Amino acid sequence: MPALNDGKTVDTTDAIYLPTGVPSHARDVLERRLVRKLDLRMSVIVIMYTLNFIDRTNVNNARLQGFERDLHLHGTQYATVLSILYVGYIIMHVPGNMFLHWLERPSVFIPSCMAVWGAISVLIGITKNYTEVLIVRLFLGFVEAPFFPGVLFLVSKWYKRDESALRTSLVACGSILSFAFGSLIASGILSSMQGKLGQAAWRRETWLFYIEGGITIFVAICAIFILPDFPHNTRWLTPEERALAISRLAEDGYGKNDELEKQTTMQGLWDAVSDWKVWWISAAFIFQYIGQSFANYFPTLSATMGYGTTVTLLLCTPPWGFAAIVAFVISKHSDKTQRRYRYFAISNAVGALGFIISMCTMNTVVRYISLFLMAQIIAGYMVLWGWISNTFDREPAKRAVAIALINGLGQTGSVAGSYVWPSNWGPTYRYSCAICITGVAVATGMFGVMHLYLKHENERIERNERDAKDVKELRDPIGFRYLI
Length: 484
Fold this sequence. Notes:
Blueprint: H1 12-16, H2 24-42, H3 44-63, H4 67-70, H5 77-103, H6 106-124, H7 130-144, H8 147-156, H9 161-192, H10 206-223, H11 239-254, H12 265-273, H13 276-291, H14 298-303, H15 309-315, H16 317-337, H17 341-360, H18 364-391, H19 396-410, H20 412-417, H21 430-467
Helix pairs in contact: 2-11, 3-6, 3-9, 3-10, 5-7, 5-8, 5-19, 6-7, 6-8, 6-10, 8-9, 8-19, 9-15, 9-16, 9-18, 12-19, 13-19, 13-21, 16-18, 17-18, 17-21
């Protein structure tokens, strides 16, 4: 196993060319077969990500069944229970992805983290007071942290730029599905497990953590045998598939800067922290996550319509189901048009409209419609991550750190967002909605600046290609353009 500052060893002959004599139509058939195989195996990440968010947010559903009362929480303690997870989350993002880049075994590392967080989620069910649940949630954040940036890095190591937005969205749709199916599962558990195996009614929400944590551990064990590693070391690829997996990324603009450049993990760290784009995007994500803080309080917002616990949780499902469909459609169209920012901006605008509607009325039907509109922010957020991966797609070590650093620093917005929805601002939550509108507006503007910068960079690259007298003078691969 290489040291952190060791270069990667890759067969450069196989990395660029398929064996001679392979006709183009045979390559197309092989490529379609390879992508289908990848899609099938990568699909397990959707389930993993769904369980990731379910385990992270199950306290939101338990809150409706007396979680705060049972643990004697008061004031801002519930918000602190939510936000403490992101402390561990922020700390472990970058080390987790650096370790993954060094280990080169995502099929082992990612499921292992998942099994541990499943066990920790079970422990939440036996906590008895504020201190205990705070400690458990802190450790939950530590072990969950490597998952999302690790998955994004894994996807970016396999798919071309015109494939990445759809695959990233499908993977990240697990977060949307978790809000939908997590509420369904919670409604069933909370309504049917009362008194089972000695659990009294006032502690029946603990079944939520036992069952969901147990499912997570089981799926993690299965994922070890399903997930791929990286193109050059995945065992179940044929030699032809391995050569094609690497060469098609090289031809897509990864070229000499990806597998073939042997960039070390520590070099990737330095390149990431010295790139102003990483810090700018991280700051934008802080505001974006503040704007998305409503998602953690979605059951609470649903409860403002006045229904009981079971109906309230069931009403959470359709808005997220619709958001998942929209995310799939706009991601597919984003890959087709090779555009990213416009879809993100429109989704944020629709979400802001939902906040405005929610601020203006307590009418049940209208407020429920506003929940559908709010959820569209997450649909655009799926496309956003495909864009971020594309922006740093030519340097794998830097990309691993950049993705982790952006998401880690951005999660400070989630910490702040946990305090945006205090109970005394309900049931209208006008101030909360106003803060979220401000957050998504600032984020949209900051990403708009990045959009204009990358557009300018594409013009510069095109001029350099046109004016260059020798290909060796070019800093960028021929034909490479940033997706905007």
